[in-house]
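CORE FACILITY INTAKE
Project code: CF-77B
Contact: R.S. (postdoc)
Sample description: multi-component assembly, two entities in total
Requested service: structural model of the whole complex
Turnaround: standard
Below are the sequence entries exactly as provided by the requester. Do not edit them.
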Amino acid sequence: DTGVSQNPRHKITKRGQNVTFRCDPISEHNRLYWYRQTLGQGPEFLTYFQNEAQLEKSRLLSDRFSAERPKGSFSTLEIQRTEQGDSAMYLCASSVDSRRELFFGEGSRLTVL
Amino acid sequence: GEDVEQSLFLSVREGDSSVINCTYTDSSSTYLYWYKQEPGAGLQLLTYIFSNMDMKQDQRLTVLLNKKDKHLSLRIADTQTGDSAIYFCADGEDNRLAFGKGNQVVVIP
């Protein structure tokens, strides 16, 4: 098992464009989480899935953000009409149920010009 | 989880002990966590402590929890160059965690 994989690792885009990030969790992990980390801060919870069901969305997740996990395996996080304030590292993590270890990917860094 | 606060920077000589502190506000968290983030790598769980415990030791790591003051600390004994990283404490349920800002630890050989 290669761990949690995220793509692309770095995305540079112009303000107003849409971007999509993909996360492949560890196989057999039924829970998948998205976090966002800005420079000098700790990660902030965005949303999570159990299998294909999205169970919770943080108030940080504006209506420009949408996440899916259609088959309960990989997940995508789409940001529409990007703003400079969306520049951050987007982290994906997975776990087996709510067991006390999250396995994080290396993140997808978004730079909005 | 709610607000978690940490101080920012610690420099320590190789072989010495390092102590990282954290305060948290969510007293309902069942577990509190320490994660490590190395450059270019994903966050890695170091250890966690059940909220009813005062102390947990795990090899070179010692976690102390003061529930009355909502204070959590991580002591790393015999600090090594590979311990250079950013350390985050976190609280929360079901892995919906609130992380502190992190402590950067720099180990001087």
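Facility notes:
- DSSP finds no helices and eleven strands in chain B.
- The longest strand of chain B covers residues 85-93.
Invoice: internal transfer
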